[in-house]
Specification:
The protein has about 300 residues and is mostly helical. Helices cover about 80% and strands about 0% of the residues. It is built from eleven helices and two strands. A two-stranded antiparallel sheet has the order 1-2. It comes from Saccharibacillus alkalitolerans. It is found in: Cell membrane. It is a multi-pass membrane protein.
Amino acid sequence: MFENFVGSLPGAVYLGLLYALMALGVYITFRILDFPDLTVDGSFTTGAATAAVMISHGVSPWLSTLTAILAGMAAGACTGLLHTKGKINGLLSGILMMIALYSINLRILGMPNVSIMGEDTVLGAFPPIPFMIAIVLIFKFALDAFLKTDLGLSLRATGDNKRMIRSFGVNTDNTTILGISLSNGLVALSGALIAQQSSFADATSGIGMIVIGLASVIIGEALFGAKTVFRATLAVVLGSVVYRIVISLALQIKGFETSDLKLITAIIVIIALVFPTVRSALKQRGAAKKRSAELLKSLEAAGGDR
C-alpha cells in the first residue's frame, strides 16, 4: 500500500496543481465576494470543451487556452448580470447558468466528448510539475497584486459590506460581475488544462467541481490559515494539493474503490469543516481550565494570608 501511495504521489501533486487554478476561482466568489456561485460546474466544462475543440481543429493550444479563459469569463459575466441586473437570487443565478451551460457545452463539443489524443498541447513541451508550479504561482501572485489595487480593494469591500462601499461611490454591480467573471475565467483555465492533460473533454467533466473547489479552500484555510490575502491564496493552492494527496491515500485503503471518490470527498469536506470548530472548543476548554486553576490558586493564597 505504502509503495503504491508513493508511486502515485507525483500524479496527485500534478492534479492538485491543475485543480488549484479552479480552487483560486472558487476562493474569489465564496470567500472574497461571499457569493455562492454554482456556475463552476458548467464553466469548468466550457473551458475544457472550448480548448479541446479548437485544438482538435488545428488551432494553437496557447490561443485555444486563452479562448477558454474568455469563454469562462463570459459565462461568469452572465451569472453576474442575472444576479445584479435581473435581481435573481445569487444561488439561483448560478444554478440557472449551470443548467444553461450544459446545453451550450454540448453545442460546443458537437458530441458527448472530444478526443485530442496526439495533438500538441501547452503541457506537452514542458516538464509537467515544474511547469504547473510556475503557472499556478503566476496566477496566484497576479491575483494577490490585483486584490491590492483600488479595484481589487473595491471587490473585497463588496463582499464585506456592500452598503458601506456604495457610500463611497463604488458601483457594486460592476465589481460583482467582475469578480464572478474572473472566478469563472480561472475555473475555465483549469478545465482547459485538465482536458489537455487527459487528452479529451467530456460534457459531464464539470460535475462536482464546486465541491472539489470548496474542499480545497476549506482544507487550505484549516491547515494553513488565511489572515492575509497572500497567505489565503497560498493556502488555497496548498489545500488543492493536499486534497489530491489525501484522495490518493484514501484510494489505497482496502475497501475503497474509485467509485467511492465522491463519498471520500464528502468525508474530507466534513472533517475540514468540523476541525476548526473542534479546535476552537478545545482551546476554549483549555483556557477555562487555566482560568479556574489560577482562580483557585489565588483563593488559596488569600486564605493562607488570613
